[in-house]
Amino acid sequence: MSIQERLKALREQMKEKEIDIYIVPTADFHQTEYVGEYFKARKYITNFSGSAGTAVITADEARLWTDGRYFIQAAEQIAGTTVELMKMGEPGVPTIKEYLADTLKEGGNIGFDGRAVAMGEGLAYEEIAKEKNGRVIYACDLIDEIWEERPALSAEPAWMLEEKYAGETAAGKLSRIREYMKENGASVHVLTTLDDICWTLNMRGNDIEFFPLVLSYGIITMSQMHLYINEAKLSEEMKAQFAKDHIFLHPYNDIYEDVKMIAEEESVLIDPARLNYALYSNIPDGVKKIEQRNPEVLFKAVKNPVEIENIRKAQIKDSVAHVRFMKWLKENVGKIRITEMSAAEKLDEFRMEMGDFIRPSFEPISSYGEHCALMHYTSSPETDVELKEGNVFLTDTGAGFYEGSTDITRTYALGEIPDIMKEHFTLTLMGHMGLANARFLYGCTGMNLDLMARKPLWDRGLDFKCGTGHGMGYLLSIHESPAGFRWRYRAGETAVLEEGMVLTDEPGIYIEGSHGIRLENEILVRKGEQNEYGQFMYFETITYIPMDLDAVKTEMLPEETRIQLNDYHRTVYEKISPYLNDEEKEWLKKYTRAV
Fold this sequence. Notes:
Elements: H1 3-16, E1 21-24, H2 41-46, E2 54-57, E3 62-66, H3 71-78, E4 84-87, H4 96-103, E5 110-111, H5 119-131, E6 136-137, H6 142-146, E7 159-160, H7 163-166, H8 170-183, E8 188-191, H9 194-201, E9 203-204, E10 217-221, E11 225-228, H10 236-244, E12 247-250, H11 255-258, E13 267-270, H12 277-282, E14 288-291, H13 295-301, H14 305-332, H15 340-352, E15 357-360, E16 365-368, E17 391-397, E18 399-401, E19 404-405, E20 408-414, H16 419-436, E21 439-441, H17 446-449, H18 451-458, E22 469-471, E23 480-485, E24 502-505, E25 508-511, E26 515-518, E27 521-531, E28 534-541, H19 559-576, H20 582-591
Parallel strand pairs: 1-5, 3-4, 5-6, 8-13, 11-12, 13-14
Antiparallel strand pairs: 1-2, 2-3, 7-9, 8-10, 10-11, 15-18, 16-17, 17-20, 18-19, 21-28, 22-23, 24-27, 25-26, 27-28
Helix pairs in contact: 14-15, 16-18
């Protein structure tokens, strides 16, 4: 069926169920950023494949809200579908809630699959419907009614992340969670987010492409944990370890009935941003609900010493692979046929040579020329182009090693490139180095520091429509709360920067129809000196790959940035050269030379 035919079929279902407005979010039942094939309902009904966006359908309109990362991509993918793009955050564009309030008629009903909508969002929709003397209808997956040959839920096996990688046992983590519950007066903790559950249990799997997560729910009490999962995913060894830790297994979907049985004397800890609306609605009204951020969110964001040691190893491995890839690319472009897709495959070949490589940590962004302007571009057989001299190639990819996940971006000059591209590369480099070398007092958040990366761009009337960086999960989600860098407030990303957090530093410039530049390293939050002004903090860069000097206009570099770049390149050579042969070392010397 075409998108128009799917929308027509959906509207027929809406009419039958007395639903005036139907909402289709991106999420699965666990509020996961990237979802498995079964859950790609929004893509099915709009054709937009990005990782963030919400479709809202009425009897005569279909609208798609997404953020600045996807404006170009979304416009291309929904062209000719009758779906209208709503550019979030842009002047004159209403929020979804504003649109619902303005559009819903008196006595009208709002419908959505309550399992795929966060509790906070669902309550907001409920309030809007009440104001119009209508109601929400949440126990309905209308997309499922019209989606012929919908993919099945994943049945991939799970596996345990050994303590030598995780640095802490599941029993130890559960003890910390229970201490938090006790401090907040909770006796039960309902948990639906996959990365929180997998972190708690040192469990990983294959239920979402690129992300080693396992479809599951959890209920933690003061003495037990109830894990809702397809038991066929678990090995006997895992089952035995779970039993030892008083973790009891239940069928995946049973949690929706089990939460109805929570006794009224219990106090339940729930996270409004992470619990889905259907589960929240099934908890008895008489049960006290304590609304707090899941404790696992901060626990897993602050890496323990074992994780940090492993992450350093993973970064060295990926940096070596990148250096070898950069050398191969520079020496072969224009001589052999290299395309966006074959370049991404070549980089993964170099990663595999480093050992303990599991798979890419997210869908690779391998883009050339004007494709680089699409922040989250995915090359496909239909769009795959050959890399040629005279333009830039952007590779934003990551590796999942047992020692941890990486997320690294480099933009390379292929041959001689236009002066404007060099200027944009140099400005991006200035912003990147500005943030990487920030010194700040404890208590700062990413919002306090984002300007360090944007100032060189803002000074020249330029900007990029996305965050400057995000937290990094350890073989979990690649975008990890609760800290990140962005100038505009975004709920859930405003945590104080704590020692042990790993984040990305990735400013960029994107010129539609021409080119794009992004430079991304991972940085580790460290404690600096403490004096009468307080505890100072700094970032340690843990990614060691040259910034392409072929793309730098050295005369544009402020003296401070020039020194920072030279210091960084000196460290790159010291860290990476021991893993290279003589020819590779000589090549690396050239690309880490002082400027």
